[in-house]
């Protein structure tokens, strides 16, 4: 009987260690306590945006997605947004902010990836925005969720009447 008691105690200890290891790999409860409850992030403090952002307009800095467009951003009319290169299910929402010098684009990301956006071409007729996603680290466990954050893309000049062309490149 003594042997089986030791075996049960060892099994319980190994099970507890496994549960603690899995909890540590997924994130600690304290990090979740600081996460936004609504699924949205608040706007960053003024001055933390891109170099062209106004101190009075909270614009998310590059690489810092939000889930709602900044307050005061103006939606670019659908007839000035060309999303033909994107999959049908990909969102095609574009907003202008900061006097038209910042585009706020609805992007797509999932799992461990994070949405990226860059103005790769800016002419008098159009602005081409390349949307991509960061690659997940090798060996990292990721969820299979799909998110549609808005990301900011700085422009060299105000958008004006130019068309916004959205394209998608492979994860980086």
TrEMBL record:
<feature type="region of interest" description="Disordered">
    <location>
        <begin position="30"/>
        <end position="88"/>
    </location>
</feature>
<keyword id="KW-0732">Signal</keyword>
<feature type="compositionally biased region" description="Pro residues">
    <location>
        <begin position="58"/>
        <end position="68"/>
    </location>
</feature>
<feature type="signal peptide">
    <location>
        <begin position="1"/>
        <end position="33"/>
    </location>
</feature>
<feature type="compositionally biased region" description="Low complexity">
    <location>
        <begin position="35"/>
        <end position="57"/>
    </location>
</feature>
<protein>
    <recommendedName>
        <fullName>Lipoprotein</fullName>
    </recommendedName>
</protein>
């Amino acid at each position: 009987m003594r042997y089986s008691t030791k075996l049960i105690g060892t099994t319980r200890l190994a099970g507890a260690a496994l549960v603690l290891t899995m909890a540590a790999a997924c994130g600690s409860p304290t990090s979740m306590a600081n996460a936004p409850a609504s699924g949205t992030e608040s706007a960053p403090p003024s001055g933390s945006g891109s170099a062209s952002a106004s101190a009075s307009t909270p614009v998310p800095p590059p690489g810092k997605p939000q889930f709602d467009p900044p307050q005061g951003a103006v939606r670019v009319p659908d007839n000035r947004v060309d999303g033909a290169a994107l999959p049908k299910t990909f969102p095609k929402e574009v907003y202008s902010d900061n006097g038209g010098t910042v585009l706020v684009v609805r992007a797509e990301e999932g799992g461990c990836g994070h949405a990226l956006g860059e103005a790769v071409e800016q002419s008098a007729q159009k602005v081409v925005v390349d949307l991509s996603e960061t690659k997940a680290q090798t060996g990292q466990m990721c969820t299979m969720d799909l998110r549609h954050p808005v990301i900011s893309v700085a422009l060299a000049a105000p958008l004006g009447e130019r068309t916004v062309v959205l394209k998608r490149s492979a994860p980086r």
